[in-house]
Amino acid sequence: MYQLGIDMLTRLKANEEIVYSLISEDHVMKALDFAHEIKMKGIKASAIKENIDYTKAQGDDIKAYMLANRVAAMKLHDENQKKKNP
Hints:
By secondary structure, this protein is mainly alpha-helical. It has one domain (2-84). Helix content is 78%, strand content 0%. It contains five helices and no strands. The protein has helices at 2-11, 15-24, 28-37, 45-57, 61-84.
């Protein structure tokens, strides 16, 4: 059922909703990859931070570390793009 919802959102081009749905289902890496792929700007950092904090609380420090590094890399990439294209 979840995949059907994602497929419908894709057809509607509701990209922001797709990202937040993926995050809410603990598919944060997929959400970040999708957001990067479609060049989505302005992902709510609080949603990702909450997921990272939750992951840490669950004892999965490696996953939390990977997520935090991925977010930092995306941030750096965005900053470098802004410098190239002011």
